[in-house]
Amino acid sequence: NVSDPLGGSYYVEALTDGMEREAEGLFAEIEAQGGVVAAIETGWFQRQIAGSSMRFQGEVEQGRRTVVGLNDFVEEAEAPVEILKVGDAAERTQRARMAHLRATRDGGLVEQRLEALRRAAAEDRNIIPAMLDCARAYCTLFEIRHVLEEIYGSYREPVFF
Q1: Full residue range of the structural domain in which residue 126 is found
Q2: How many domains are there within the chain?
Q3: Beta strands of the chain (E only): which ranges?
Q4: Average pLDDT for runs of 10 along the chain of length 161
Q5: What distances in angstroms separate CA 7 from CA 14, 17, 59, one per listed residue?
Q6: Distance between CA 84 and CA 94 in Å, rounded?
Q7: Phi, psi angle pair for 68, to nearest 5°
Q8: Which one of 34, 104, 110, 123 is CB 3.0 to 4.6 Å from 38, fit for a cystine?
């Protein structure tokens, strides 16, 4: 009885050593980019991920990599997937509930809570307590997001190729 039956295995050790060398190589590449922040800003990580994805897809398409159910061990006839369709009635019901909420909540309190959130965000304070107060006052997610977007802006992921 041993806790690790493969412990000391030359094969496992060789695999581990290989992984370590690859990781150290990646760390060196990141450092050569000027560090993690610089690598993010120049799109280095995105290019690495895109390249890896392209290599993987090429291996699958050429049959050099097996994906069970896709290019090997594929079932002849698959049962059709039933698509969930939400009817117009559900949308109307939800819109009516939202209109009722907005009509019956304390509008003054909503504005106070949203303004407190705006100040917390602008002053770079912890915004979680203010967000919880907004939720307790029945502010909508849209209203909360809108306030935060006013202060922080909206993130748009840059595209690098």
Answers
A1: 100-152
A2: 2
A3: none
A4: 72 92 98 96 93 96 93 84 92 96 98 99 98 98 98 86 63
A5: 12, 14, 32
A6: 17
A7: -60, 130
A8: 34
